[in-house]
Amino acid sequence: MISEYRETISSILSVDPESIVEYPASYTIIEEDQVILCKIAGEKKLLAVGDGMFVSRLEGKILSDGIKICPLSHENRLVLNQFLPHTKPSAFGRKIATFGLGDRLGIATPGHIRCFEGSSAKPILAQQSKRELDLTGRTYEQVLDDVSFAVFQEGYRGGFGADGDHLKQWNDIREALDCGYTMITLDCSEKIGKGIEAMTSSQLEQAFANLPSDYRRRVEETYLSRVFPIGLEEYHFTREELIRCVLVYKVAIEFVKEVFFDLIQKAGHAVDFELSIDETEAITTAQGHLFVAMELDHLNIEVTSLAPRFIGEFQKGIDYIGDITEFEHQLKQHAAIADHFGYKLSIHSGSDKFSVFPLIGLYTAGRLHLKTSGTNWLEAVGVIAEKNPKLYRSIHQKALEHFEQAKTFYHVSADPAKAAALNSTSDEMLTEYLTDTNSRQLLHITYGFILGDSRLRDELYRTLSQSEERYYGRLINHIGRHLQLVSLKD
């Protein structure tokens, strides 16, 4: 399509004809209008041709009769959504495996989409936490804009989700829902009881006695002196185990109830509702998970997925740290409980946990949600190391300068001093920083400070735009490995 209009575009916009590149998979006919996504002098645009309703509603520059060049704006995204519903996010429910793909830069989605060719999972292409939005200076709408245009670019019609990730505040949840997000991950960390593990038996009894008598009576009758067969195991609660569960989770469950009935059910569209109880001081025991599941069931709250806190450490950007045998035992229990109640088990900070992916795939049997995020940013940094060594060195230095500040947002065990010194590393060896756990975590958590430097940010985007196919290729290899090891792709 571009070949017909290349000279017209070049002449009117005063650009080199060779700087006009089309994305053939995006070519679409809407009634009698034609539209394709293209890149003109390094900037992506929609080229729309026709005099129908679709073209008339797009905002843009009219080049000649029936030819319009349109920016990838929020307003144009809404028009695209109206005429091409597959560019809008969907909810997938409890049975379909989903895979979260947080994209901090807003340019990774074409690579992500290509990862899912032949996969049984559905991609959650728009996934950002409020913290990530604040650090990158983006909004929920901008994230969804970027994803929708990328879906159009790739001609992808397989469906995708949009996750307001790790949200804690009422207004943030409402904003994401109002923007059309189809998944909410409710972070209950601020509502989960603290210090309960250290309490003595008498302290536990006193705290329990302070709760309403009708509540105490109900939970005692529900959980004590009973056996709960789940999968191949049977569970029971001692009085102390029950009280600890109550004190840890009661307030959080009340919060879940408010959000579910006042926001999720009133959203006006289908929403996958995930409950995050992984941000806790102690691991989530089987009894703790069972207690939460039964209380949700008692309140008629339907969650799509639930994320417990597993034994060991799921640190950012590196493999699992901990006892894999004990992890397997607990994973098996959590997967069985989730399956018993009909929702998916969710794995948070799931990127790069290659040593335990086969176990996760085995015990969830495809009923899971796996979250990744920063690993996509690291693949972008890898492209910079390959294609623009000078820029990489500036990024690495910026990361070193702000590592201690970034650690206030993330739990990592990295010691950047243990990585090779930047001034003694050749350009050809810069990519090795992406395989060293210390420098990998250094780069992983300092993205906000790097992107906050306009000079670095602009040059980073220019380099990635010039090397976008290389970036997509790295994502296909890296995320594809995740999908394969967790048995979501052959």
Q: What is the global morphology?
A: globular
Strand content: 15-25%
Name the average pLDDT: 96
Q: What structural class do the secondary elements suggest?
A: alpha/beta
Ends distance: 35 Å
Helical proportion, percent range: 40-55%
Radius of gyration: 25 Å
Note the main sheet. 8 strands, parallel, barrel
Low-pLDDT runs: none
Please work out how many helical segments DSSP would assign: 19
What is the total tally of β strands? 16
Report strand order across the widest sheet.
7-8-9-10-13-14-15-16
Give short descriptive properties of this protein:
490 residues; alpha/beta; eight-stranded parallel beta barrel; six-stranded antiparallel beta sheet; 19 helices; 16 strands; globular
Q: How would you sum up this structure, described in words?
A:
This protein is of the alpha/beta class. It is built from 19 helices and 16 strands. The longest helix has 26 residues, at 239-264.
Compact summary:
With 490 residues, the chain is of the alpha/beta class. The chain contains 19 helices and 16 strands.
Task: Record the SSE blueprint.
Blueprint: H1 2-13, E1 20-22, E2 28-30, E3 33-40, E4 43-49, H2 53-57, E5 61-64, E6 67-71, H3 74-83, E7 98-101, H4 109-115, E8 122-129, H5 130-136, H6 140-154, E9 161-167, H7 170-178, E10 183-187, H8 201-209, H9 213-223, E11 228-230, E12 233-235, H10 239-264, E13 272-276, H11 286-298, E14 305-307, H12 324-341, E15 344-347, H13 357-364, E16 368-372, H14 374-387, H15 389-406, H16 437-445, H17 447-451, H18 454-466, H19 468-485
Parallel strand pairs: 7-8, 7-16, 8-9, 9-10, 10-13, 13-14, 14-15, 15-16
Antiparallel strand pairs: 1-3, 2-3, 3-4, 4-6, 5-6, 11-12
Helix pairs in contact: 3-6, 4-6, 4-19, 8-10, 10-11, 11-12, 12-13, 14-15, 14-16, 14-19, 18-19
